[in-house]
Structure formats: C-alpha cells, structure tokens
Amino acid sequence: MSTYNAPLADMRFLLNEIAGLKDILNLPAFAELDADTVDDILKEAAKFATEVVDPVNIVGDRQTPPVWKDGVVTISKEYKDAYKLFCETGWHAMPGNPEFGGQGLPNLVNFAVNEMWRSASIAFALCPMLTMGAAHAIENHASDEIKQKYLPKMIDGTWGGTMNLTEPQAGSDLTAIRTKAKPNPNGDGTYLISGTKIFITWGEHDMAENIIHLVLARLPNSDPGLKGISLFVVPKYFVNDDGSLGARNDLICSALEHKLGIKGSATAVMSYGDHEGAVGWLVGKEGNGIAYMFTMMNHARIHVGLEGIGVAERAYQHALSYARERIQGAIIGDAESKTKPKPILFHPDVRRLLLDMKSRTEALRAIGYFTAGQLDFANFSTDPAAKKKALAYVELLTPIVKGWSTESSIDITSEGIQVHGGTGFIEETGAAQYLRDSRITAIYEGTTAIQANDYIGRKTAREVNKETGEVGFTARALYKEVAAFADDLAKDAKLGDIGKNLQEAIKALIDATEWAITNYGPQPQVTSAGSVPYLKLGGIVLGGWLLAKSALLAQNKIAAGETSDYYQGKIATTRYYAKHWLVQASAIAREIIEGGESVLGLDEPLF
What we know:
Elements: H1 8-18, H2 21-25, H3 35-63, E1 67-69, E2 72-74, H4 77-88, H5 107-120, H6 122-141, H7 144-155, E3 159-164, E4 180-183, E5 191-201, E6 210-218, E7 229-235, E8 237-239, E9 245-248, E10 251-256, E11 267-272, E12 278-282, H8 289-325, H9 348-380, H10 384-420, H11 431-439, H12 448-461, H13 473-489, H14 496-519, H15 524-529, H16 531-559, H17 565-580, H18 585-599
Parallel strand pairs: 3-6
Antiparallel strand pairs: 1-2, 4-5, 5-11, 5-12, 6-7, 7-12, 8-9, 10-11
C-alpha cells in the first residue's frame, strides 16, 4: 500500500498563479491572513492527512466499517480517534464563520486543504463536509435563536449535521416528497415531523455527541409542487437552554445501506416520528425549503467535485508507486531491459496511462481551484462589478466542477487499476477501493445529467442579461477570453502547438454553445440529449485552458532563471493533455450538434 502525500507543489502553483490567492488576501475580509500563514496551513494539513486520515481509510473500507444494531450505529475506534483529533486540532472549524467559533479562512484555502482530506479518505471527510454544509444553510436562513443554539458546536465538530432530501419515491424529483410536518398541538411554535428518508450520509453514528438533521417536509394543505416543501431543523437530542443535551427526539436509524464504496461512512435510512412525531424547528419561511436546501446543495456540489479531484489524485499516486516498483517484461525498443529489467513505468502504455491520470487530475484541480477563488471574489470583493462577474463564473462552472470532475475520476481510478494489471482487481492491493469510492460521486448531490442540463440550460441557453438581452452572456464572455488566450499562445515559439490545439478546441466549444443557444427553445429534448457531452466538452476545454496558462507561466519562470522540475513537468503534462484530450473537442462538438436526434430515434418498444 502506498502512502498519500499531498501534491503541495501543484497546489501552491494553482493558488498563487491561477486562482488569485494574492488578490484574495488583499481583500479586507482577510486582512489578518498572509501568504506565509497559508503555506504553514497547507504543510500542517498535508502532515495530518498523511499521518492521521490516510491510515483510517482502509479501516473503514475493509476492516471495521460502521455497524448497525437496534438503531445504534457504532464506528471504529480508529475513526473516532481520528475524528476527535481532527476537531481538537481545529481542522473542523477552519471553514466556519468566526462569529460562531470558526476560523473564517478563504474558500480557496479551504478547498486546497479539503482536497487533502478527500484524497486521504472520502468516507471520513464526508462527515465534516456535510456538517459544515448544514451549518452554512442554518447560518444563511435560520433565526438568530437557532443559529446561536446549534452553530458553535456544529462548527467545532462536537455535533454533526446532515441533509435529508431523498425518499424511496423521491430521488431527483423532489416534488414527490411525502415526509409530513404539522404544527405541534402544544402551541410552542415547533412542528412534528413524520416520514422516512433514505441515503442519509452519516445519518447516525457515535463520533459526535449530537446530530442536527436538516429535513425537507410538507406542511398540511401545502402546494403539491416544490413551493410546498419547507425545511426543518430536527436534532437527534434536544438541546436545553444551557446548551446541554436533553431527551432523545423521535427519530431512529432503521437500517444502514450496503454499498459499493465509501463503506467507512454510515449511509442511513432515517425514520422520523414513529411514535408521537419528531420535533422540528422551521428554518426561515414556509415553502422555501428547496431554496434553502440548495444553499447546502451548492456547497455540497462543489465539494463532491472536490471528492472527484481528491480520489483521482490518490489513485494516481497509488498507481505511480506500483509502476515504479513492479518489474515485468522487457521494454519494447530497449534491448538493455532484457538483461537488466526495469520497472513497468518504462513501458510506453503504462506511461500513457499514468500521464493520462496525471494530466486529467491536474486539469480537474485547476478548474476546481479557479472556481473556489472566484467564490471568494463573489463573496468578499468590495468592487460590485467584480463580485457580479465572479458570481456568474461560479454559477457557470459549478456544474463542471461537480459533473466533469466526478465522471473523470471514475475513468482515472479505473486506469489506476489497469496500471496494476491483475493485482489491481484484488482488494488487498487497494487500487479497487478508489474506483468503488469514486462511483457515487457522479450520482449523489445531483447526477451528471442534472449538472449537464443545468450547464447547457439555466447557465447557458436560458441565461439572459437583463440589461442587454444577450443570451448565454457569461459563457460567451469566458469562451471569448479563452479564444483570445489561445490565439496568443499559438504564436509562441515553444508552446505554439499547445496553443493551436486549444484554438481548435475552444472553437468547437463556441460552436456547440451557439448551437445550444439556438436550439434549446425549439428542440429542448434534442438539446438535452447532448447535455452530458456538452458538459464533458466544457470541462475538457476549460481544463486545457488553465493547463495552458500554467504551462506558459512555467515557461516564463524557467526563462527568468527559476529552476524546478515542477515547471518542466507542468509543460510536458500540458502538452500530453493537448495532444490527447483537446484534440477530442471537435468530435464531441459534432456529437452534441448532430447526435441528439439519434438518441431520440429509437422507439421505446425497440429498446
């Protein structure tokens, strides 16, 4: 088994050269934070991920996964010890609002640190991620009383948090939710919740003293659609006025799911109100539950995209470690290897697999970090125009971060198994876990199709500038910027080949975008049939753009006398990506423009 080591060189480069850390640290909100402190945080997080989180990954997956008995879920001692240390050392509180005990660090810094947790163990990292997402929703929409009661202990990790959307009949279609809420007859302003929720990640466990559930439910005589759904805070244990825990609420974990991956996390079936009704407190206004939950959902979608990035990096490191050690067969075209065997890293196709994993992971990371940086500008910039532009970029790119990163991670982790050959198919090798863990990331918090339809629809073909009437103006503006960069890079003496491939790729994306804008209204099904390829195209091209920017910056640093293997590696990795991935853009654009009708062309009985 390999050991996880955070890719600090790539992280630092992206933070400082691509995602805008320097400008973020100059914002008034972060006046007390400097670059040296950020670097210290990264180094300490890397150490914690390697020494504390990475070792428990195998424990949760194959040694001591969560155990359910009579509604009680027991987590392994190793997980509990790691979680306790995670909270005690302040990592849990890092993203939180200082008003409630958090550290208030930039989203960009949190993103980099959280990548380390995801790489070391997705299952473990899901617990704090969901707690902070629930805390974020409470902070943005709940009353001051609810905030003061719950947020401090959620932010420091003493209490956990969950999101409860899915029901047996209500997956992606939340209009089908049946969980009920009715005013408590005692007249204290609370509500009684009854119903069943499924697929609730970390819905029950003994790592935290209390678990604060955010539950979507319908009030009596409410609208039958989304506007009839409200959001409620439903704690596992009641909280007394002095902050101590009281009696158990009327809720129970009725089962744990048996899963393909992320086995270290407890995915619960939650039953509310089996007796008198689980007591809940309304968040905000009645009927706004979906809007409030999407505050948490959008947070979760970016972080699930980060899971894709993290597991891809871990699979790459695992495969590379094996390829450096495993000796098997003579190397084609290398006569010396017949008498002096070399590791399989020297086989051309193993090199291709590893470069594919490396280049794609770095492209995913670049888009993720760029988006996280834009989120900081959207939230904290003092320039209204800059805030507006950054928010538009975040909204456009979130489906790519979530959808493309997770779909790519499935491919990348599968390639990791291929590098291992037959041993990759054996669980003891560890390679298979990364593929198993990655598979859920393209499903939960909105499937890839949901992300793709959001990207091609609401974020592109249905986005209208209220001032000018231009459709898809954010996408068009960004792609115009990419095209201008590609034109300049194509003239570069050393990187011109990369620039030319980027020119062709961005033209393909622009062509597909214009087609989507034209056809979305009159042919919504045909356009939707090409939405997932369109998402893939956007990810490939924008990932290539940020890699190309990185390569140019690396070349300039080399020219200025900075010597670093990292810079040479970045250029070589980008060139591989340009020759193997950017060249696919034109074909994918044709798939989008010409392929939709064929998707709809087979009558249902013929399937």
